[in-house]
Design brief:
- It is a single chain.
- This protein is of the alpha/beta class.
- It has a single domain, classed as 3-Layer(aba) Sandwich (Arginase, Chain A), CATH 3.40.800.10.
- The protein is built from nine helices and eight strands.
- Helix 1 crosses helix 9.
């Protein structure tokens, strides 16, 4: 991957053999439902990288979202290693490759940042933490993704949080940005609440601020953040498959990420469900790229 096509122009390795603090990689496909064409999601990582190029020369400039330069005046500590090779409908193979890459990044003592892909890629991403210390999950999403199966597929985009709840290393989860309707049935909601998941609806964030979600995260916990682009209001994030009014604002999302970085430790981050064929003038890809920048900035600043 060349500097002109990578996220913010980052190299795939750091100078002087330093170990990276953050490793970005993409995965176009996870576990696709039978008969479903998910090819549009394979464009997501490239769209985000392309949208970041306007700021590639500004990495050392002051970023008002972060209160300083991206790397806080320190050397660049992020690399972009490109995309994992995934194949639509090769569900088992895709999961194996995503999990293996996640484990590979964690073995470097780095924080993996995954650019999806539909949110089925989250399942193997979280599974990659199986040998790590326990983690919490902060899911930022319009939906709870708690279906046990859909069309016979247990690892599709309607099931990530259900599958995560079954993983021994997942200690708890907070699901924030919820609104409207999705694939969840009353029984799915009851089972998620029975597991102990904390629901924070979008309207609670609008009324009370991000503390309505952050207060449920134990201080000092290790947290995987999974951000579904449909958590964000479609007025600024139209490039999603399920547009739903009433979503979070950009500022609320980056305040969630920054607040989490101060309260706990971000152990992993994925951004999923950007659907470039539905985008308008590249607005969604630009917003997604800026969210990834804020995630990197929060990780760098957490010590």
């Amino acid at each position: 991957m060349t500097a002109s096509s990578s996220f913010l122009g980052f190299s795939d390795r750091l100078e002087d053999g330093r170990r990276p603090r953050v490793v970005i990689f993409g995965a176009g496909h996870g576990s696709t439902y039978p008969g479903k064409d998910s090819s549009g999601y394979a464009l997501s990582a490239g769209a985000i990288r392309a949208a970041s190029q306007g700021d590639a020369a500004l990495v050392e400039h002051w970023d008002f979202d972060l209160g300083g330069p991206l790397f806080a005046g320190k050397p660049i500590s992020c690399v972009d290693v490109g995309n994992i090779e995934t194949v639509m409908h090769d569900n088992v193979g895709n999961r194996e490759r995503i999990e293996a890459k996640t484990r590979e990044v964690l073995a470097l003592s780095a924080v993996p940042v995954l650019l999806g892909g539909d949110c089925s890629v989250t399942i193997p991403f979280v599974a990659g933490f199986a040998d790590e210390e326990p983690v919490w999950i902060l899911q930022i999403d319009a939906h709870i993704d708690w279906r046990d199966e859909l069309q016979g597929e247990r690892y599709g985009y309607s099931s990530p949080m259900r599958r995560a709840s079954e993983m021994p290393r997942v200690a708890g989860m907070v699901q924030v940005g919820l609104r409207s309707v999705g694939s969840a049935r009353p029984s799915d909601v009851k089972e998620a609440q029975g597991y102990g998941s904390r629901f924070v609806a979008a309207r609670e964030i609008h009324a009370q601020g991000v503390e309505a979600a952050l207060r449920h995260i134990p201080e000092g916990a290790r947290v995987i953040v999974t951000l579904d682009c449909d958590s964000i209001d479609p007025s600024i994030m139209p490039g999603v498959a399920a547009r739903t009014p009433g979503g979070l604002t950009y500022t609320q999302v980056i305040d969630l990420i920054a607040g989490l970085g101060k309260r706990a430790k971000i152990a992993g981050f994925d951004l999923v469900e950007l659907y470039p064929p539905a985008d308008i003038e590249g607005l969604s890809a630009l917003t997604a790229a800026r969210i990834v920048v804020n995630a990197i900035g929060a990780i760098v600043r957490q010590g």
